[in-house]
């Protein structure tokens, strides 16, 4: 069950009150998620905090800036991926492996809700304690991926999932360069690519802003993360983003607590399921299967047959009257 948590406007409200009913597909996908949540290894929150504090004290080395500068190297550093209806991009937290990460069950629930419609990409970046360099690469890789896919697959919609350092990477990639801590020179998401972002779900975001309407959780709206971004940086994405933060997570609530348990609470507090359900409700209608289409064709033929000459007289008369009207 999703945990009870407060909104940034105050008061306690269960997450279901802020969620559109998702139907059978959501229920099946989240049932699978409940089995998977215990599989992910937890990262070290203290190491994450120490690495994040170095982001503002140690600037990115010039060679890293030059290597990933969009002006110096304008060609994309990624190749186009398959043109599935939905692309799910996960950006893991500091120290998490590519597999069995916190975001894995979230992505899996979305995939299982839409079999054969999704492609998942784990963002190729180090996710280590060298955040300045690694997150700069992550921002460049994500920006190029979004832009390349928008051009190669104009019908594809993108879902972005980020945890901890991964939330920083996604947020800075989407924000204007002057609002970034990492990747200020790695280019910008094009308007076309931004329009194709269907949903953004972040957990334990170090750049969290308590007053922003994108926040969800038990946090205080008066408290920000360790490295808060300028308020309003996510305004273009407000209607398609959830930025989850709990009160005792010192990464997204920098002054409330030093308890390390808060930053890993998302593994078992129900917010994985809540984030997955939110994304699933934003997906488009489920396409008809071949069998459903055939049944629809058969039903249409049956309806049409009622107007044939051998149909009962009252049916033919009703059809003729409807045709005249």
Question: Would you spell out the secondary-structure blueprint of this structure?
Answer:
Blueprint: E1 4-6, E2 12-14, H1 23-36, H2 45-57, H3 62-68, E3 86-91, H4 104-113, E4 118-122, H5 131-152, E5 157-163, H6 165-174, H7 191-195, E6 197-203, E7 215-216, E8 241-244, H8 271-282, H9 290-305, H10 313-324
Parallel strand pairs: 3-4, 3-5, 5-6, 6-8, 7-8
Antiparallel strand pairs: 1-2
Helix pairs in contact: 1-4, 1-8, 4-8, 5-6
Protein name: Cutinase
Keywords: Disulfide bond, Hydrolase, Serine esterase
GO molecular function, one term: carboxylic ester hydrolase activity
Number of helices: 10
The quaternary structure here is: single chain
List unreliable stretches of 5+ residues.
1-25, 28-38
CATH 2nd-level architecture of the largest domain: 3-Layer(aba) Sandwich
Radius of gyration: 23 Å
**What is the assigned CATH homologous superfamily of the largest domain?**
Alpha/Beta hydrolase fold, catalytic domain
* Overall mean confidence score, pLDDT: 82
Q: What is the rounded distance between the termini?
A: 53 Å
Secondary-structure element string: EEHHHEHEHEHHEEEHHH
As for the CATH topology of the largest domain, it is Rossmann fold
């Amino acid at each position: 069950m999703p945990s009870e948590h407060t909104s940034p406007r105050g008061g306690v409200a269960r997450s279901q009150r802020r969620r559109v009913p998702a139907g059978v597909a959501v229920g099946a996908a989240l049932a699978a998620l409940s089995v998977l949540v215990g599989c992910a290894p937890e990262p070290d929150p203290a190491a994450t905090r120490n690495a994040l504090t170095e982001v503002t004290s140690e600037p990115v080395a010039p060679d890293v800036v030059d290597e990933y500068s969009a002006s110096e190297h304008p060609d994309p550093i990624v190749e186009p991926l398959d043109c599935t209806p939905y692309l799910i991009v996960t950006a893991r937290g500091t120290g998490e492996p590519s597999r069995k990460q916190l975001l894995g069950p979230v992505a899996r629930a979305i995939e299982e809700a839409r079999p054969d419609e999704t492609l998942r990409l784990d963002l190729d970046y180090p996710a280590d304690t060298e955040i300045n360099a690694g997150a700069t690469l992550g921002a460049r890789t994500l920006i190029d991926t979004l832009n390349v896919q928008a051009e190669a697959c104009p019908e594809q919609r993108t879902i972005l999932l980020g945890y901890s350092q991964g939330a920083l990477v996604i947020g800075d990639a989407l924000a204007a360069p002057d609002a970034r801590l990492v990747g200020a020179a790695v280019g910008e998401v094009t308007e076309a690519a931004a329009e194709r972002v269907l949903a953004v779900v972040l957990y334990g975001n170090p750049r969290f802003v308590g007053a922003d309407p994108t926040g969800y959780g038990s946090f205080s709206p008066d408290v920000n993360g360790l490295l808060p971004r300028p308020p309003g940086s996510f305004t273009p994405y407000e209607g398609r983003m959830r930025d989850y933060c709990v009160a005792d997570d010192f990464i997204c609530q920098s002054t409330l607590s030093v308890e390390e348990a808060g930053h890993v609470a998302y593994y078992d507090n129900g917010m994985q399921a809540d984030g997955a359900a939110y994304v699933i409700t934003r997906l488009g209608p489920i396409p008809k299967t071949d069998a459903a289409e055939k049944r629809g064709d058969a039903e249409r033929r049956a309806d049409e047959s009622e107007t044939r000459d051998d149909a009962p007289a009252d049916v033919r008369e009703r059809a003729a009257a409807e045709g005249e009207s």
